[in-house]
């Protein structure tokens, strides 16, 4: 019995020792495993790769361009009475003898001249205003003499024929309210819609005729931050009311204190107007907002890499690093939206990009 008890005791001791040994070994392994320096994760996860591919890089923003004609007063009304008809629309081009409107059924026409109409012109009238009338009558085919500023029988006869063509009595005397002399013709005009409208009363002396320049003024209202992205020369593509693209460039800026915005002035890319021969698409009586694309970075095609793949050495040389860790010097031709067009590296090369900094999609293509 005693021997059996002793045997069991020794067995327990041996088992305990083995268990203790195993526990000790397991603890040592655990301590070693937990406390040992881990494999450097940066070596394996510090970068990913992007393939050098052909593509395009550029950037633009969508803004509204405001087009507006800037009229200049060029002629005053001398007729007195009720406006019975308006013959021109805002922006119409008028020439010698064109009827602008009628007062008491009497047409008021436009003619070229530096001297405004101020008196009736009939037989024996003399002066530069007479010469201006003679030029108009000659242009309309009613007068064949010299524009000498003296109203003789030839001028009076021409006035009568002209009056008859307008449905007026052949008096041979042009009244001061019959003609509005303007600096040059032909020209685009607009009438003061508040003063010259059917049923309105005119007393004479009102500035009613304004001339329009060869094209509207084009501006882009922007914030100060947006203005900083649009230096002089920035390209702008304007969509016309009929869907045609008009090209312009930023030519300057001014501040609109009332609206608290910066106005970027636009100019044509050629000697022609921004709207070319289609300026008539812009109504003369209102501002028009046109959808536009402002090209903040001109599109450049070539070999494209993520901008994050570019590294700069102490010597200032820009480079990319390939899979073997070799630095390949490159020249950056353009950069936008996290992508760069470069020269100096071959298409298809895989280059390192810091982890988490690859562009959306990771394709290596720029747009």
Notes on the structure:
The structure is a single chain. This protein has 367 residues and is α+β, with helices and mostly antiparallel strands. The protein has three domains: 47-59 and 299-354, Beta Barrel (conserved putative lor/sdh protein from methanococcus maripaludis s2 fold), CATH 2.40.420.20; 61-69 and 214-298, Elongation Factor Tu (Ef-tu), domain 3, CATH 2.40.30; 72-212, PGBD-like superfamily/PGBD (Muramoyl-pentapeptide Carboxypeptidase, domain 1, Orthogonal Bundle), CATH 1.10.101. Helix content is 19%, strand content 38%. The chain has five helices and 22 strands. The strands form five sheets. Strands 2-12-15-14-13-16 form a six-stranded antiparallel beta barrel. It has a five-stranded mixed sheet with strand order 8-7-6-4-10, with helices on one face. The chain has a four-stranded antiparallel sheet with strand order 3-11-9-5, with no helix packed on it. It is rod-shaped.
Give the class from helix and strand content and strand pairing. alpha+beta
CATH class of the largest domain: Mainly Alpha
Give helix and strand order, one letter per element, not per position.
HHEEEEEEEHHEEEEEHEEEEEEEEEE
Strand segment count: 22
Biggest β-sheet, characterized?
6 strands, antiparallel, barrel
CATH homologous superfamily placement of the largest domain = PGBD-like superfamily/PGBD
- The global form is rod-shaped
Radius of gyration: 42 Å
Report the portion of residues in β strands: 35-45%
Averaging pLDDT over every residue, what do you get?
87
